[in-house]
């Protein structure tokens, strides 16, 4: 019976025969998935596993030929994938925090009434702002825009 090829040999062969990389995926994807599922949750782990192996495939020419086992290399890629995912999630949360949620939560009637009132008062407000000095107007507008 023949011994299975080492990860190193599979990666080396995949440089000329890309389909050889599938054996590496078959060998380690379940373990990498479990690692990612514990860190990110099972909903995200499947995509993160795919991203990990896609990155590994693209960078397989950088694999150190000194090791027969690719798991430390794959875990390193998976860990970077976790970091990228968490940074993307943080950016998404910050963007959502900047959204004006009043338009999504206020009933249409309240929004319409508020807009009518704002239009009615707009002319009066413009007249009042016109009577302020440039410095006072800039200060007032700066404060109003910050809140």
Q: What's the CATH topology label of the largest domain?
A: Rna Polymerase Sigma Factor, Chain: A
Determine and state the CATH class of the largest domain. Mainly Alpha
Topology, number of strands: 0
**Net shape:** elongated
Number of domains: 2
Q: pLDDT below 50 for ≥5 consecutive residues: which ranges? A: none
- Distance from N terminus to C terminus (CA atoms, Å) equals 74 Å
Based on CA atoms alone, the radius of gyration comes out at 29 Å
In the CATH hierarchy, what is the superfamily of the largest domain? RNA polymerase sigma factor, region 2, helix turn helix motif
> What is the helix fraction of residues, given as a range?
over 70%
In DSSP terms, counting alpha (H) and pi (I) runs of 4 or more, how many helices?
Answer: 7
The CATH architecture classification of the largest domain is Orthogonal Bundle
Profile the largest sheet: none
Mean pLDDT metric: 85
Order of helices and strands: HHHHHHH
């Amino acid at each position: 019976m023949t011994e299975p090829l080492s990860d190193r040999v599979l990666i080396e062969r995949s440089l000329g025969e890309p389909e050889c990389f599938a054996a590496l995926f078959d060998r380690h994807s379940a373990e990498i998935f479990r690692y990612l599922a514990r860190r990110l949750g099972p909903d995200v782990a499947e995509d993160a596993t795919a991203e990990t192996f896609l990155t590994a495939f693209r960078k397989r020419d950088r694999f150190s030929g000194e090791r027969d086992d690719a798991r430390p290399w794959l875990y390193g890629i998976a860990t970077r994938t976790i970091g990228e995912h968490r940074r993307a999630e943080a950016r998404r949360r910050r963007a959502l925090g900047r959204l004006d949620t009043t338009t999504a939560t206020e009933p249409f009637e309240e929004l319409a009434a508020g807009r009518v009132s704002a239009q009615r008062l707009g002319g009066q407000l413009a007249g009042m702002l016109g009577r302020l000095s440039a410095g006072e107007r800039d200060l007032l507008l700066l404060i109003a825009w910050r809140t």
